[in-house]
Amino acid sequence: MRDPYSVLGVKHNADATEIKSAWRSKAKTLHPDHNQDDPSAASRFAEIGQAYEVLKDPERRKRYDHAAEMQQTILQQRQAAQEAAERAKAAKANAEKIMEELARANAQRAQSQAQSSQDQPQNQSGSAGETPEEVIERIFGAAAADQARAQGQAKGSAQAAGDTAETAKVDPNGEKPPLPVMAVDLIASLVRRIRGTSPAPEKAPDFSVDAIVTVEDLLNQSWVTVKLSDEREVRFALEKGMTEGQMVRLKGQGIKLAGMKPGDLLVTLKVAHDTAFRIEGFDLHTVLPISLEDAVLGAEATVETPEGNHSITIPAWSGSDQAIRLSGLGLYNEAGDRGDLVVELRIILWEKPNEKVTDLMRHMRHGLYV
Questions:
Q1: b/e for 306-325, b at 16 or more Cβ within 10 A?
Q2: Residue 308, CA distances (Å) to 220, 304, 305, 311 in order
Q3: CA-to-CA distance for 236 and 248, rounded, in angstroms?
Q4: Residue 168 gets which letter from DSSP?
Q5: CB contact set of 273 (below 8 Å; sequence gap of 6+)
Q6: What is the pLDDT of residues 89-111, one digit of tens each?
Q7: 112 Cβ neighbours under 8 A, 6+ residues apart
Q8: Which of 59, 136, 209, 327 is most buried (CB neighbours < 10 A)?
Q9: Which positions ≥6 away from 145 have C-beta within 8 Å?
């Protein structure tokens, strides 16, 4: 689906009134009944309807804005990665060129030394006897040559000497490497400088959403469907040990972009508020209203549980600060055991005042007992 803001012709900070007004205006203009000669009118009319459905719902609009912002960030990261890859390619080509030049200079130096030992006159080309720094200066300029000299000096006087540097490393066969160690380090330094520091993103960022579930869903390990801003629907099964506020990570189900590994979908479980139970960890809490006489004298009562009604005994002289705990009627934990159902008692009075109870309370306040 195209950007809904562009489809309706509104700005990203448009309020609900502007969005509705734009939709009505577009709908009147593009209605198929008014454009019977235009075969694309129906599809365009449907498109503005879909765009309005996304933007009129605050939650769907919020999810779309979040996904669009993340996608923009990802596109910028991909562009940076492409630029880094181009710099790396150029660095590789330059490094190969340096290797060729240094190898040629080494060969010419060896030929010159051989001829000198035989007291033969030198007949070298202009690049004979060039040092690695001189090769770098000829190819990249004086700034790169200065970097080479500084790196060579940092290695210490022992490695600064050409002969020592050339014999610092040997291969398993005991032969000297074709290039001085300083030159190899210099090439690696140049490659790092040309590549830059921006790493190529391996996967898209994770995407977070909320999922509304019920206590029954958690107990029955039901399947949950999450609808994303790109109209995809992702389903997953609840498991034992899941409770209110827990985050479920669905690998590879987040934002999907070509050329990148999909991000994860992070789903936070939210229990519906219209339930008779409140969740604390793996315990369920419910409130049981009781009358004043039942609180004083005790009584038998029925309380609602996730599995149906359950009979309980209210002890005599029970106050609103007391609770009755029913073991094993809560949510499942990771081990498969269940928490408790905690019945919180709440004393309520009659709808209309009772004269006898009022008179009794008045006598009790003033210390007069009948």
A1: beeeeeeebeeebeeeeebe
A2: 14, 6, 5, 10
A3: 9
A4: S
A5: none
A6: 777 777 777 777 777 777 777 77
A7: 122, 124, 128, 129
A8: 136
A9: 133, 134, 136, 137
